[in-house]
Recover the amino acids of this structure.
């Protein structure tokens, strides 16, 4: 496989048949590459860079499957990959990316996770193959000092990964630099008493500001960060990885891409693209929580994050979005132990936050 | 108005009534701010930072309108604003942002366009109030030298704004630094013969890489850049503006947000949010072209880009996506002269590219 093979499912409009599907496949092939109608690009470019299309097939009433293969030469970064796969196509309707087959060379260039499943466990000092715990520091509105106090309690209770809530950025209530120093200090103090917690500040901004925040996080002693790829760009994940930091990716805004008729399948967006960009773990809503998502799709995301894919390290599924403390054993059975369990409200609703953290720790260690 | 008033339209599920709409409004109010269930945040934070909800109203069969007012203190940047308005909500279904009323102080902090309609015209040396022309340099696969040749022909023909195609980033066929120098040189040569064309490289990447590309563009003499806010993050628009560059925003990927039942209305995404982030012009598909969009929505985007909004400069609507040379007079009548007409295929299909450019120029000057 030398090209990126993308399979789209097309919702046929009334009266459209396979011939119409072929026309639309051809349209996508040009629109997503040269963005000129057929015949207006130099012949060499039409031959080498316009996506090749396979004969479409009907896959159900009013649905056709299109396969397009894209030259990896079109892609220089994860954001540009997203652009090639769905940039202008997003402004059509009834086109959904449902499968990707990757050329190894492209995967090699994108790079994938810098730490991966094993690296993330090592960072947390977890030798045995158990699931990790993660809690969000929240709510927005607390001061850096107050958030740091929560970080200390949670780290002391045995939580492995402490991340900023993704609603926390650089607001006046808890400025980035100050908050990150305080929270990392708090976690360092807990770790000095025998813990190995990792604090992940939510890193936002673009250009120099993003670079400065990544640098400030490193200076404060952070070993990992939280990035929201659909807000900051997929390339921001790679930038954090290239700065030597482990990365958890947050799914904010990505629901817009997950339409049942138009968009990108969750297992590809979260499972393949976020991982290829460099996420060591990808947060997504678990079935049975606050967001409508099928368990089968959640498990498919986990499978894509962890499956062999070129030389990319496997990444951790981080299930969140309303995980209940009581159901943790069930999720461990379903997902296995290469998993991060993210609990927010389920923990904060307990009167004794540290005690609740310890119970979560026990549930994971005992599994 | 001291808070950001956001109006959402909710698709009611079977059996849902106003009481259910109220419950969902309350859910959004907590989810998009403290991200904790009611009662789990300190009372001061619940009072000050959880969005306030107004009584929902039915607006049609199965539709309710929700009004939520958000504290501007939640927002420190355009990307974070998008997060507050639609980050986690994106992972629900049937929720569409349809109106925004802005507090002036928040607009002041976001800053908006650095150049705006008048500044963009000044950059192009256009004294009279006429529409500007824009052409994309394409296709991807041409070398920097070949793209520069096209830039020279088009600039000499009288095109005002020459932008990279958004499929062009830093691929091996035309590396960013080399391409930008060559294209800017070509445009400088055309300008030395009496033109005033502006070249806009497509700036991609995150963190240091984005910063380095913005700096390289400035060093090469560029006065403006192209940014794709949904790929690079809305904050990348602000970063380019803060570097002193004018910015055209490209709509790639944003179609995912424009669902008729779930997402953000185009006039708000392109008209308000891109502008508030700092876009001096926003490219979007025009009605009657390659993308399905109603003329009324296109005109509403233009209205939002140019309407009085705090102290923000008005921004240029840049209509593209398959504009035909022959219909330019019609669009000038519809949109007025504070407009950029972006033509790609319609120009490249002409055997004499420079001649076609000159005809476009005449059409705009004669209007």
């Amino acid at each position: 496989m030398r090209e990126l093979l993308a399979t789209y499912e097309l919702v046929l409009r009334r009266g459209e048949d396979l011939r119409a599907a072929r026309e639309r496949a051809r349209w996508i092939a040009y629109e997503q590459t040269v963005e000129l109608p057929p015949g207006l690009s130099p012949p060499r470019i039409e031959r080498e860079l316009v996506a090749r299309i396979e004969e479409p097939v009907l896959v159900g009433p009013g649905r056709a499957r299109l396969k397009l293969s894209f030259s990896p030469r079109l892609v220089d970064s994860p954001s540009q990959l997203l652009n090639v796969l769905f940039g202008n196509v997003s402004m059509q309707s009834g086109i959904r990316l449902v499968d990707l087959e990757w050329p190894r060379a492209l995967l090699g260039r994108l790079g994938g996770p810098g730490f991966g499943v094993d690296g993330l466990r090592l960072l947390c000092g977890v030798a045995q193959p158990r699931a990790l715990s993660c809690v969000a520091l929240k709510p927005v509105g607390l001061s850096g000092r107050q958030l740091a106090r929560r970080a200390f309690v949670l780290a002391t209770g045995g939580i492995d990964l402490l991340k900023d809530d993704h609603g926390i950025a650089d607001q006046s209530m808890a400025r980035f630099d100050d908050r990150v120093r305080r929270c990392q200090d708090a976690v360092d103090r807990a770790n000095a008493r025998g813990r190995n917690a990792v604090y992940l500040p939510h890193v936002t901004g673009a250009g120099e500001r993003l670079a400065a925040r990544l640098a400030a996080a490193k200076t404060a002693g952070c070993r990992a960060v939280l990035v929201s790829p659909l807000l900051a760009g997929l390339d921001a994940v790679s930038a954090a990885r290239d700065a030597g930091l482990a990365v958890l990716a947050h799914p904010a805004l990505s629901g817009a891409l997950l339409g049942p008729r138009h968009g990108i399948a969750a297992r590809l967006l979260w499972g393949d693209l976020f991982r290829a960009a460099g996420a060591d773990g990808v947060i997504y809503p678990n079935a049975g929580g606050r967001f409508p998502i099928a368990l089968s799709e959640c498990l498919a995301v986990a499978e894509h994050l962890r499956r062999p894919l070129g030389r990319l390290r496997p990444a951790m599924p981080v299930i969140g979005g309303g995980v209940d403390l009581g159901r943790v054993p069930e999720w461990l059975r379903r997902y296995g132990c290469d998993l991060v369990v993210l609990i927010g409200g389920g923990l904060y609703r307990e009167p004794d936050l540290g005690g609740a953290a310890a119970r979560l720790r026990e549930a994971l260690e005992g599994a």
Remarks:
- The two ends of chain A are 40 Å apart (CA to CA).
